[in-house]
């Protein structure tokens, strides 16, 4: 007991003269552990080269289209709408113009042939007037004291016929006589009543008119009844 007490006293007396102990530095790991050093492994198989390129080209969910891309898409959409509307507008204008032209032709046709029924009834009166003029023989029209009244009547009927035919022509109604001009037979405007040989005339030509024909604005109102030459 006494020895232990003396030993402690001697140690305390010698401590001020002893060398201070150096501070112990904390022990650090020789191999630093960082996140770069960690390696994670996936259970899925590695993608092929084409699939890897496609995956790389796909935008991630976090990526959003920029404002410029949105504006370009909207501009392209508006351009397509403008082209579509322009095409519809041009088609509508063309259809309207075609409708105008068709309506104009129909109205003009209705005007041209509005008098067709009246003209059919009128040509009978013109035929009677023509027959009255042709019944008088040519030798009876020589001026003399005995046929003075006949000449006056004939001249009056001739003048009436001339004025009537001029008025009808203004409204599109015209009379034609194929035998006067020696026309070729045309089944569209002529009606063959008989055929006979005529050595001095061309085969198929009209040499006699039994009933004169009429045209209404260029359309056949009544075909002319004629005799046709047939030499063969």
From TrEMBL:
A single GO cellular-component term on record: PAM complex, Tim23 associated import motor
CDD domains the record matches: GrpE
Chain positions covered by the region annotation Disordered: 42-73
Family: Belongs to the GrpE family.
InterPro entries recorded: GrpE, GrpE_CC, GrpE_head
Main localization (coarse): mitochondrion
Protein name as it appears in the record: GrpE protein homolog
Coiled coil: none
Cell location: Mitochondrion matrix
Bias (Basic and acidic residues) ranges: 58-73
UniProt function note: Essential component of the PAM complex, a complex required for the translocation of transit peptide-containing proteins from the inner membrane into the mitochondrial matrix in an ATP-dependent manner.
Taxon lineage: Eukaryota, Fungi, Dikarya, Ascomycota, Pezizomycotina
GO biological process: protein folding; protein import into mitochondrial matrix
Origin species: Amniculicola lignicola CBS 123094
Annotated Gene3D superfamilies: 3.90.20.20, Head domain of nucleotide exchange factor GrpE
Keywords: Chaperone, Mitochondrion
Gene Ontology terms, MF aspect: adenyl-nucleotide exchange factor activity; protein homodimerization activity; protein-folding chaperone binding; unfolded protein binding
